[in-house]
Amino acid sequence: MTQEELLAQIYKKDSNAFNTLYNMYSKSLYGVIFNLLKNKEEAEDVLQEVFVKIWKNVDSYNESKGRFFTWILNIARNAAIDRLRSKDHTKNLKNLSVDNFVHILDHNATVVNRIDAIGIREFVKKLKPVCVRIIELLFFKGYTQQEASDELAMPLGTVKTQNRTCIKDLRNILEV
Amino acid sequence: MEEFINSGILELYIFGVTTEEENREVQEMAGKHAEVRAEILSIEKAIIDLSYSVSPQLSPEVYHRIRRELIDKHGTEGVVQLQPRRSASSYIGWAAAIVLLGCLGVQYFMYDQEVEKKEAVTKERDKYEQLFASTTKDNEQKEKALRVIRAKNSAIVNLGGQQVSPDSYAKVYMNDADNEVFVDIAGLPEAPEGKEYQVWALTLNPLTPTSIGVLDKNKVADSQGIIQVDNFEGVQAFGITLEPTGGSATPTMEQLYTLGEVKS
């Protein structure tokens, strides 16, 4: 389904629209949110908040704001970061000892997704350490290039090209 | 342009960490070059798959909760709660209303006698009208089902029985000209109490199921077992699972009744 077809369906805001939106993106958004919060119940709460926001504001989305996925990704990341900063969260903090998205895979090793997309998990674990860190910061945490460059002590220009190389590795395996 | 793609800007664009100026630049390039657009789609796909794969299991309860929040609550927005109002005028109002009600009662009793006679006749007429309507409806459904099967450009996908019910089968009729998809479940056992069949459109690599319809029992009874479901562009296979009434967010694979690949 192209983005245009998807949006045409979502604008109807009926139950089919919801099913499509949920089936296409809930797991990905939940992955991002969980990676930030490390707490399943809280991440579920935030996911619900995010869907409400998408549903309410979808009329204000347009292509000039970037890809639709990027738009909802930003909503999800911002909601999760807001939660991180809230008082409720600090209470629940540190109940999981995971630092990044690859650790989440290990941590949830016993939970096998019914539809584990073609063993991406196994591959993701093989990403170079530098790739894990750079994807963690830029994609999962939404760091700017400058922030990532400071955190990794890597020249600004290198961050961008190194990230491309890492995503290329990922694409080679996924064949996309 | 090659240089533009290799700079790594498109990845950051999808991640949503570019500045507005950079966004405009990317959009301008994407408008001009198909290669840039294709690259954007590939990066996006990789990133969606990556975040999908690191997501812990999401229970169906979350789906139902969010669905209730977005769909079911939707209709109640804007309903104004009435505040109770108490004053002398409202008591006078009630008194007047009770007197009026008494008068109406007497009138009504007399009127009722006449109405009863008329009602008996009307009832009889309604009965015949209903019979006629249901026969017509039945007929229409049969014709519709037949039309689907006979349509010139209908492609048929045969769904074979799976482990849980090897003798089951179903058929999917895809009419590309009208973009209509129908499923025939005459070869499935009747769904037990509290369960309904749900039809999934599957795309492979990665295997992604999308619900294209929950086969509501009334719908099934009304349609000779041939039911229209949503069209799903690019579908590569169809599957039917037995799910709790109302359907599930993701298919229950242990209850997969039939499965069939679309021949392209």
Automatic annotation (TrEMBL), chain A:
Lineage: Bacteria, Pseudomonadati, Bacteroidota, Flavobacteriia, Flavobacteriales
Membrane-spanning intervals of the chain: none
Keywords, comma-separated and alphabetical: DNA-binding, Sigma factor, Transcription, Transcription regulation
InterPro entries found in the cross-reference section: RNA_pol_sigma-70-like, RNA_pol_sigma-70_dom, RNA_pol_sigma70_ECF_CS, RNA_pol_sigma70_r2, RNA_pol_sigma70_r4, RNA_pol_sigma_r2, RNA_pol_sigma_r3/r4-like, WH-like_DNA-bd_sf
Protein name as catalogued: RNA polymerase sigma factor
One Pfam assignment: Sigma70_r4
Record family assignment: Belongs to the sigma-70 factor family. ECF subfamily.
Organism: Flavobacterium suzhouense
Keyword flag Aminoacyl-tRNA synthetase: no
Source superkingdom: Bacteria
Transcription keyword on record: yes
Positions of the RNA polymerase sigma-70 region domain: 21-88, 133-171
